Amino acid sequence: MADTPKIELRNVHKHFGPKVVLDGVDLTVQRGHSMVVIGGSGTGKSVMLKCILGLLHPNSGSIKVDGQEVTGISEREREKVLKKFGMLFQSSALFDSLPVWENVAFALIQGENMPRTKAKDIAMATLAKVGLGPEVGLLNPAELSGGMQKRVGLARAIAHDPDIVFFDEPTTGLDPIMADVINELIVDTVKDMGATALSITHDMASARKIADHMAMIHKGKIIWNGTAAEVDTCGNPYVDQFVNGRAEGPIQMEVLKA
Amino acid sequence: MNVFAPIGRAVLMFLAEVGALARFTERALRACFVPPFYLRHIGGQMLRIGYFSLPVVGLTAFFTGGVLALQIYIGGSRFNAEGFVANIVAIGITRELGPVIAGLMVAGRVSAAIAAEIGTMRVTEQIDALVTLSTNPFKYLVAPRIIAAVICMPLLVLVADIIGIFGGFIVGTQSLGFNPLVYIGNTVDFIEAEDVTSGLIKSAAFGFIIALMGCYAGYRSRGGAQGVGRATTNAVVASSILILAANYMMTSLLFAS
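Above: the input entities. Below: the structure tokens describing the complete assembly.
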């Protein structure tokens, strides 16, 4: 008997007015696996993540988390489901009015009503896991570099030990060394926690490092799905063009040629 | 070319906007009445909305009261009504000018600040982050601002009433030659509790409008710095117009006897 998939999307459609973004997305992520969805800019990767979390509502289709349908559920049900998730945003999205440790401890204090001193200890321990010392915990997000903000964002996403972690372009905007630091952290923390990870990126080096499985999204559909090792040999011309970074090929980006 | 299409489009867009605002208001009101309540945030907002608006409200009230005294004197002298300056200043400030001028000044200050703050959070994905961290943004951000504004506006208007009447008193006694005791006596004799309370009730409604429009404009901002800038402008314009419209409706429906 097959395990219930952790996340399952079936025929998900999302459009904004006349603009179709998701055009029948099918995706399955098994428990404990790390899935990376690759695709060009504007192909619907972020919209897909937001539909799963309920930040956007799909126009049709089914999204199941642990076998439970999450489209169209009530706000209270949604709050319960969201406790399973942690998310690292592309811009880190740290709360500028709070010090770093309170950012990291946010889900603990708000979601679990943990007393502040206990939450602070856990926050400091989580910061140590991502390689930041306790003195960073007392700073304000505006005082941090981009790489440090990303690491604080990661700490905040994992502090409450979620089952599922989402990474939205985790290495975008970072220098190659810091990008690898983030990749290593993602691999280590996800493995430590036994969590299920779903990342979206167009950084192939990052994708190769953090993925067990990969899927490629193009024009709102998943056009290829397979293990990370298969991505170079799958023979799909769209995947080939993307993975090797060629301007010429079946994927025509909207570029005005002179 | 269909000449009615632009008209239809404009009407539909307006109705869609009204609908979106109505849904936002419903969620905001529910967040104000259903626990949990973020008391520390309410306190912080009361400081920013109430206490820090005192200078603006005090100054505008003082000058408004002063100019009102002057104008009543000048206009009233056409039909021998100069003696009524004290009474009319008192009634005018407490019933109308106190709440409305304070409302508009606070709208400019507070509604813009709220829209800018929440708008920036929106475009940097901080509001989405709140949701992923098990926090309802309506309870965490919107409700404290609305509750704080509804509590603080009547208190600000009370201060505006006192300072406005005082402004009239200064002009009346220094420039217009009224006897101070007579001026104060007229003020006290002819003002009624209903004047003050009707003003305070209106100001609570204005506080609600100010916070709601600030939060709504900020929540709906899209597109980076320009979007946030648009949001702050929209917040101020919308609050101001709604305050004046609500002022008329409340006065005619509730207080015209």
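Note for the figure: The radius of gyration of chain A is 19 Å.
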